[in-house]
UniProtKB/TrEMBL annotation:
SUPFAM superfamilies: FAD/NAD(P)-binding domain, HI0933 insert domain-like. InterPro entries: BaiN-like (IPR004792), BaiN-like_dom_sf (IPR023166), FAD/NAD-bd_sf (IPR036188), RsdA/BaiN/AoA(So)-like_dom (IPR055178), RsdA/BaiN/AoA(So)_Rossmann (IPR057661). This is NAD(P)/FAD-dependent oxidoreductase. Its cofactor is FAD. Residues 190-339 form the RsdA/BaiN/AoA(So)-like insert domain. PANTHER family: OS12G0638800 PROTEIN. Residues 7-392 form the RsdA/BaiN/AoA(So)-like Rossmann fold-like domain. Keywords: FAD, Flavoprotein. It comes from the Bacteria.
Length: 394
């Protein structure tokens, strides 16, 4: 087996790893990226429904979750969303803005992957795929990486093997284990941007409504999100739910507003005044999807004329719509979670370079680190920004 020397080895050929390798290559450093997957950047490929929501024009540190909310500021400032947009435009990739500042490729996420691979090639970055990493060790100032393709040596090691979400795509706890091996602390990882699951009667009701979507608001007590909410066979999903899941802890209740643009009590009273002979369900249908209107009517005051409902009873119905309190039995977990919250403790890393404070030459970037973005392109921006600073400093 061969033994190769590089200035820098990057572990993980995802968004963060490839981007850091490009920056290091630009500085004339010899760089090799190693990944156990057959193809690079598989998560980029499936992201944004195949169109990759590659950044968000509203990127701001407040859109990131971490034990240290200040940690992400330096990297996000050193390499901004505007820098990445400029690179995308230079490549001639057509893109468009969706709601809330989210930028997507017009054609395909493959355009972003091709851009990354073009940049790797232009900057002489080697990429070794289908390569297992057996062991990493450090002697003096040099790292030894033992792989299924032989032993490799480097002065700087950038770890970009991501978090635990979507294990069937090759996610592993490699970064956490390596961090522990070198004495770094790990903030307990948990799935984020993930649908909620429910049990018992609640689930039965939700699964009947599977496919129904509303403009909802989900409040965890810590943070509330107003976006689309979708009933599924397992419980609740949709952007409002995924966002809230990142702020939810097992055993806690959430509060759901199923008609956040509507004053439900006022709408019910108006309905009673204008169409007293109508059934409650028909009045509810004026501002809720019909299947949901039927369900809420059956659960509260079935088969009754609106005229027969007192203000107090209308208030019960309005509360069921606007302040629906419920307790998820859990989330769908890493199987479907878009991200992993937690990871390598930012206290052990330099926010300016992403280098481990006590292990010179060792860098951690991307989702492996305890910095997690909201839904909407923020996680890729973190991959680009953290990758950029590591690649500039490794
Ligand atoms: P990433 O997980 O991308 O890459 C890690 C790499 O390391 C992988 O190539 C893996 O094979 C490799 N690896 C892991 N363990 C290894 C080991 N032991 N040995 C060797 N190699 C190993 N974000 C966003 O901003 N916009 C979006 O549109 C989406 N959409 C989206 C959809 C879906 C379905 C998911 C699951 C996620 C998203 N995300 C997203 C989140 C985004 O994909 C994620 O945050 C980034 O890909 C993280 O980039 P990293 O490079 O840090 O890890």
């Amino acid at each position: 087996m061969s033994s190769q020397n590089y200035d820098i080895i990057v572990l993980g050929a995802g968004a963060a790893g490839l981007f850091s390798a490009i920056q290091a290559g630009k500085r004339g450093r010899s760089v090799c990226v190693i990944d156990h997957a057959k193809k690079p950047a598989e998560k980029v490929r499936i992201s944004g429904g195949g169109r990759c929501n590659f950044t968000n024009v509203n990127t701001h540190p407040s859109r990131f979750i971490s034990q240290n909310p200040h940690f992400c500021k330096s990297a996000l400032k050193q390499y901004t969303q505007h820098d990445f947009i400029a690179r995308v435009e230079e490549q001639g990739i057509a893109y468009h803005e969706k709601a809330l500042g989210q930028l997507f490729c017009d054609e395909s996420a493959n355009d972003i992957i091709q851009m990354l691979l073009d940049d790797c090639m232009f900057n002489n970055v080697d990429i070794m795929l289908s390569t297992d990493i057996h062991r990493v060790s450090k002697r003096d100032t040099e790292f030894l990486v033992q792989t299924s393709a032989g032993n490799m040596h480097c002065d700087s090691l950038i770890v970009a093997t991501g978090g635990l979400s979507i294990p069937k795509m090759g996610a592993t706890p490699f970064a956490y284990e390596l961090a522990k091996q070198f004495g770094l602390n790990i903030i307990d990882p948990r799935p984020g941007l993930v649908p909620f699951m429910f049990g018992g009667e609640l689930l039965a009701g939700m699964s009947e409504l599977s496919g129904v979507s509303v403009n909802g608001r989900v409040d965890t007590g810590q943070m509330a999100f107003e976006e689309a909410l979708l009933f599924t066979h397992r419980g609740l999903s949709g952007p409002a739910v995924l966002q809230a899941s990142s702020y939810w802890f097992p055993g806690h209740e959430i509060e759901v507003d199923l008609a956040c643009k509507v004053d439900a009590l006022a709408a019910l009273k108006k309905g009673r005044e204008e169409a007293p002979k109508k059934k409650l369900a028909s009045i509810l249908e004026t501002f809720l999807p019909s299947r949901l209107a039927q369900t809420i009517s059956e659960e509260t005051f079935p088969d009754i004329r609106i005229a027969d409902l007192s203000n107090a009873k209308l208030d019960v119905v309005a509360k069921r719509i606007k302040h629906w309190r419920l307790k998820p039995v859990g989330t769908e977990g890493y199987r479907t979670a878009e991200v992993t919250i937690g990871g390598i403790d930012t206290n052990d890393l330099s926010s300016k370079t992403m280098e481990a404070k006590d292990v010179p030459g060792l860098f951690f970037i991307g989702e492996a680190v305890d910095v997690t973005g909201w839904l909407g392109g923020y996680n890729f921006q973190w991959a680009w920004s953290s990758g950029y600073v590591a690649g500039r400093n490794a």
